[in-house]
RNA sequence: GGCUCUAUCGUCUAGUGGUUAGGACGAAAGCUUCUCAAGCUUUAAACCGGAGUUCGAUUCUCCGUAGAGUCACCA
């Protein structure tokens, strides 16, 4: 039994996006499942377009997602290896120096071309079955600009050979490159690896996913407050499934259950709503400390100050905040729009707001609040919990009409049309602030 | 256009020569504390079309159609 070696081979000409993540994930899963090796190889043979910042972004993203590699290579460090094979192939007569007439600026007058044997190449794809191509149409393709500048197809084949890659798992945009790579492989005398081509990830309009469709870099999802577990789970289930109805799949389960033949053959449309749903699920599994950190990070300066000075209130707010978001950056928006202010500061509002839709008489509303105040007064400060508050007010509210009591009460506490329920709110604010706010509402109603 | 690949609810998908074609996201309705959110329950929602094989095709074959990828001295 030979060792399984897979690789992820991005070119640093762009950021790490969702589609690449899936390719990396599947390669990684396959290696881990088989106790094999996962190689990360930066394909930077295009000196013009390759940028260090993109390489950093890719490394950063993979690291954050936990897709750790066992070996790392950069093609630009491997020139002598490509050169050696180039010379070798020339000696064998498989490659020749070709005189050219440059058609565009930058083109060479002499390049290295591969002597195409012009035959039909058939290969097996673990995800799709057998595929064959007639390579005649390719002609004698260029494999290097010169001995120091190999082109993609050549460098890939040499590297996969030299690194002992056994399984090539990559996007199906590379499927039509495979025959020519096999040709080079055969000239090199390299064994043929096992191929598995993954379908593309598409935008909602079925076109190729791009930035304008909301396809962000993985690092941007991180900044938006998505969790790596959610991204991995989401991406894994686009084009693969564990063989049952499970939607939440842990990494450990994926490693156990992953299988190449189960990979979907058609492209999958990126569905941000499902990602959000998954992210919300994983957010709920976070500890209080982690939640507090993520939230605190995204509060306004004022709110941060309040939170620091009122740790009890802040910690009680956390479950409420979490309930309303599916990714953490939403906290920023909510915080900036003043959504959390009433937890710390007595709200200001128009008196009409405190009136329930079915009970518009301010005098009656005020009387009901007075009764609420009276009922609340019996509760000891130390036992001011949602349960005790509810018990105190509930019967009375039910008797006279819940909305006519609870709406003004809740509005007095929050000053908002929408908010958590009055019992939770009151318990967070504490007895003193609750009474103060209700008294203020009564005054306002009678003014 | 040539070549290659693909085709089940709006989306991600399960599944089978005979099924009420299953699940999830989203949507709608209801319930649960007045509002919001969450949660729970329920509902609507699909086998691209046409031939053929067959007692019977969503499933197998062929032909259409549609979509995608690819055709560089990019990767």
UniProtKB/TrEMBL annotation:
<dbReference type="InterPro" id="IPR000924">
    <property type="entry name" value="Glu/Gln-tRNA-synth"/>
</dbReference>
<feature type="short sequence motif" description="'KMSKS' region">
    <location>
        <begin position="208"/>
        <end position="212"/>
    </location>
</feature>
<dbReference type="InterPro" id="IPR045462">
    <property type="entry name" value="aa-tRNA-synth_I_cd-bd"/>
</dbReference>
<keyword id="KW-0547">Nucleotide-binding</keyword>
<dbReference type="InterPro" id="IPR049940">
    <property type="entry name" value="GluQ/Sye"/>
</dbReference>
<dbReference type="GO" id="GO:0005829">
    <property type="term" value="C:cytosol"/>
</dbReference>
<feature type="domain" description="Glutamyl/glutaminyl-tRNA synthetase class Ib catalytic">
    <location>
        <begin position="106"/>
        <end position="277"/>
    </location>
</feature>
<dbReference type="GO" id="GO:0005524">
    <property type="term" value="F:ATP binding"/>
</dbReference>
<dbReference type="Pfam" id="PF19269">
    <property type="entry name" value="Anticodon_2"/>
</dbReference>
<dbReference type="GO" id="GO:0008270">
    <property type="term" value="F:zinc ion binding"/>
</dbReference>
<keyword id="KW-0963">Cytoplasm</keyword>
<dbReference type="InterPro" id="IPR033910">
    <property type="entry name" value="GluRS_core"/>
</dbReference>
<feature type="domain" description="Aminoacyl-tRNA synthetase class I anticodon-binding">
    <location>
        <begin position="298"/>
        <end position="441"/>
    </location>
</feature>
<comment type="function">
    <text>Catalyzes the attachment of glutamate to tRNA(Glu) in a two-step reaction: glutamate is first activated by ATP to form Glu-AMP and then transferred to the acceptor end of tRNA(Glu).</text>
</comment>
<dbReference type="GO" id="GO:0004818">
    <property type="term" value="F:glutamate-tRNA ligase activity"/>
</dbReference>
<protein>
    <recommendedName>
        <fullName>Glutamate--tRNA ligase</fullName>
        <ecNumber>6.1.1.17</ecNumber>
    </recommendedName>
</protein>
<dbReference type="InterPro" id="IPR020061">
    <property type="entry name" value="Glu_tRNA_lig_a-bdl"/>
</dbReference>
<dbReference type="GO" id="GO:0000049">
    <property type="term" value="F:tRNA binding"/>
</dbReference>
<dbReference type="GO" id="GO:0006424">
    <property type="term" value="P:glutamyl-tRNA aminoacylation"/>
</dbReference>
<dbReference type="InterPro" id="IPR020751">
    <property type="entry name" value="aa-tRNA-synth_I_codon-bd_sub2"/>
</dbReference>
<feature type="domain" description="Glutamyl/glutaminyl-tRNA synthetase class Ib catalytic">
    <location>
        <begin position="3"/>
        <end position="103"/>
    </location>
</feature>
<keyword id="KW-0436">Ligase</keyword>
<feature type="short sequence motif" description="'HIGH' region">
    <location>
        <begin position="10"/>
        <end position="20"/>
    </location>
</feature>
<dbReference type="InterPro" id="IPR008925">
    <property type="entry name" value="aa_tRNA-synth_I_cd-bd_sf"/>
</dbReference>
<comment type="subunit">
    <text>Monomer.</text>
</comment>
<feature type="binding site">
    <location>
        <position position="211"/>
    </location>
    <ligand>
        <name>ATP</name>
    </ligand>
</feature>
<dbReference type="InterPro" id="IPR014729">
    <property type="entry name" value="Rossmann-like_a/b/a_fold"/>
</dbReference>
<dbReference type="Pfam" id="PF00749">
    <property type="entry name" value="tRNA-synt_1c"/>
</dbReference>
<comment type="similarity">
    <text>Belongs to the class-I aminoacyl-tRNA synthetase family. Glutamate--tRNA ligase type 1 subfamily.</text>
</comment>
<dbReference type="InterPro" id="IPR020058">
    <property type="entry name" value="Glu/Gln-tRNA-synth_Ib_cat-dom"/>
</dbReference>
<keyword id="KW-0067">ATP-binding</keyword>
<dbReference type="InterPro" id="IPR004527">
    <property type="entry name" value="Glu-tRNA-ligase_bac/mito"/>
</dbReference>
<keyword id="KW-0030">Aminoacyl-tRNA synthetase</keyword>
<keyword id="KW-0648">Protein biosynthesis</keyword>
């Amino acid at each position: 039994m030979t060792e399984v070696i897979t690789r992820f081979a991005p070119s640093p000409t762009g950021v790490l996006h969702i589609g690449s993540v899936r390719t990396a994930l599947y390669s990684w899963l396959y290696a881990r499942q088989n106790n094999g090796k996962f190689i990360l190889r930066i394909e930077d043979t295009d000196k013009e377009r390759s940028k260090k910042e993109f390489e950093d972004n890719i490394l950063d993203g993979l690291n954050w997602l936990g897709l750790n590699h066992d070996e790392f290579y950069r093609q630009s460090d491997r020139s002598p290896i490509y050169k050696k094979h180039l010379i070798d192939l020339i000696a064998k007569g498989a490659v020749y120096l070709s005189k050219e007439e440059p058609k565009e600026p930058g083109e060479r007058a002499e390049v290295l071309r591969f002597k195409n044997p012009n035959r039909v190449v058939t290969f097996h794809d673990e995800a799709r079955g057998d595929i064959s191509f007639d390579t005649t149409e390719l002609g004698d393709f260029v494999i290097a600009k010169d001995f120091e500048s190999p082109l993609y197809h050549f460098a890939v084949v040499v590297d996969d050979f030299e690194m002992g890659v056994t399984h090539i798992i990559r996007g199906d945009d590379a499927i039509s490159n495979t025959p020519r790579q096999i040709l080079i492989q055969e000239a090199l005398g390299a064994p043929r690896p096992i191929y598995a081509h993954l379908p593309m990830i598409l935008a909602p309009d079925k076109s190729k996913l791009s930035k304008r469709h909301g396809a962000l870099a993985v690092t941007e999802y991180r900044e938006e407050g998505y969790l790596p577990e959610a991204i991995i789970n989401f991406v894994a289930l686009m084009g693969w499934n564990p063989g049952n109805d499970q939607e939440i799949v842990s990494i450990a389960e994926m490693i156990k259950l992953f299988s190449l033949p189960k990979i979907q053959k058609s492209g999958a449309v990126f569905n941000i709503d499902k990602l959000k749903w998954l992210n919300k699920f994983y957010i709920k599994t976070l500890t209080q400390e982690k939640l507090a950190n993520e939230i605190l990070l995204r509060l306004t300066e004022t709110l941060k100050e309040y939170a620091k000075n009122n740790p009890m209130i802040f910690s009680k707010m956390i479950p409420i905040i979490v309930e309303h978001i599916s990714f953490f950056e939403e906290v920023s928006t909510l915080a900036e729009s003043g959504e959390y202010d009433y937890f710390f500061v007595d709200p200001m509002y128009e008196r009409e707001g405190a009136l329930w839709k079915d009970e518009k008489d301010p005098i009656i509303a005020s009387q009901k609040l007075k009764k609420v105040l009276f009922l609340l007064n019996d509760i000891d400060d130390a036992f001011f919990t949602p349960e005790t508050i509810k018990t105190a007010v509930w019967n009375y509210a039910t008797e006279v009409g819940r909305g006519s009591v609870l709406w003004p009460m809740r509005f007095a506490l929050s000053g908002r049309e929408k908010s958590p329920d009055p019992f939770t709110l009151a318990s967070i604010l504490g007895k003193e602030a609750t009474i103060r706010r209700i008294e203020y509402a009564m005054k306002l109603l009678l003014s």
